[in-house]
Amino acid sequence: MKIPYGSQYIDDNDIQAVIDVLKGDWLTQGPNIDTFEKAFAQYVNAKYAIAFNSGTSALHGAMFAANVTVGDEIITSPITFAASANCGVYMGATPVLADIDPKTYCIDPEEIKKTISQKTKAIIPVDLAGYPVDMDKIKETTKDTDIVIVEDAAHALGATRKGEQIGTQADMTMFSFHPVKHITTAEGGMITTNNKEYYEKLKLFRSHGITKDADKLQKNDGPWYYEMQTLGYNYRITDMQCALGLSQLKKADKFINRRIQLADRYDKAFKDNPLIQTPPRPKEHDGRHVFHIYPILLDKSLDRKEIFIKLRENGIFCQVHYIPIHHQPYYQKQFNYQTSQFPKANDYYQREITIPLFPKMTDEEQAYVIENINKLT
């Protein structure tokens, strides 16, 4: 038996949706892009959604829309994928890290307060594992400032915060469609926002800074004419990918409910194991955790590396999420971060293992994972 930590769920409808595009007239920039964006915006109750070829590209675009530039600072969590910090570095900004809250594994709003300066341009809170970060406290911290909040919700499609879908509470919200995420477009990402100015800037940025919109042209030589009005990138998603995304979006609630069901079963299975700490959840009235991953923390008396290797030897392909940003050689060299910084993030990293959880995981596979983990601990 081989069980990955995460996996896509592709059915015949998804395959047919892509085949239909392959048989049609559009492969790259076609009508499915606009349709997917509108359907996604409706799903999260946002006014606008802009699709990109990856979540990383989407974050880069958000930094452009927020006018992040050389000399600015952006704040994010040390426990996240590198893209959450890299997106600011792409614009010439300095990444500033704020330690996590052990009660949520997300960035601690109190630590954000300590790191805000006159140079802070943007904050990128991360909904780690699918836990909805405390946006109210973060917004309270930035009240009466021009700081832009870009929520990294790569893990959190379908999560809720006080009854509202994640996707509108920040100035911009990024979602990822990598195969292990809640829905997939193979690779892809999305920014949602209620701000029209951000929406227009994001559209320009993802397509070389070029527009063909007659109402926005400085001059117009004819129907062939276009203008490059800013420096942008080729971050466009394809019609094929958006056809897949549309098909997947129809099943998002089904996928999310299965993830939560599997997480409930893990919680119950490890409840009486004193050597395992299961993931935190928000109180029911505060929000819904959607479990992109299921991170367990091992007791300090256990050898994490030994357990990790033995699980893999037994066909359980666990993972670690994440190696902290301040442990990365690039960030230590370029920004003078030290491994010893951020003690709460370090404690999390030294004890964390991500165990398998994905919608098509069977009850039998999960029982096998539970059996092996309980034996090893």
Give structural notes:
By secondary structure, this protein is of the alpha/beta class. It is globular and about 75 Å long. The protein has helices spanning 12-22, 31-44, 55-65, 83-90, 109-115, 135-142, 196-205, 239-249, 252-270, 304-313, 329-335, 343-351, 363-376, and strands at residues 3-4, 48-52, 73-76, 94-97, 120-124, 148-152, 160-161, 164-165, 172-176, 189-193, 210-211, 227-228, 276-277, 287-288, 294-298, 316-317, 352-355. The chain folds into 2 domains: 3-249, Type I PLP-dependent aspartate aminotransferase-like (Major domain) (Aspartate Aminotransferase, domain 2), CATH 3.40.640.10; 252-376, Aspartate Aminotransferase, domain 1, CATH 3.90.1150.10. It starts with a strand and ends with a helix. Helix 3 crosses helix 4 and helix 3 (55-65) packs across helix 7 (196-205). The longest helix is centred in the C-terminal third of the chain and has 19 residues, at 252-270.
What's the topology here?
Blueprint lengths: L2 E2 L7 H11 L8 H14 L3 E5 L2 H11 L7 E4 L6 H8 L3 E4 L11 H7 L4 E5 L10 H8 L5 E5 L7 E2 L2 E2 L6 E5 L12 E5 L2 H10 L4 E2 L15 E2 L10 H11 L2 H19 L5 E2 L9 E2 L5 E5 L5 H10 L2 E2 L11 H7 L7 H9 E4 L7 H14 L1
Parallel strand pairs: 1-16, 3-4, 3-5, 5-6, 6-9
Antiparallel strand pairs: 2-10, 7-8, 7-14, 9-10, 11-12, 13-15, 15-17
Helix pairs in contact: 1-8, 2-8, 3-4, 3-7, 9-13
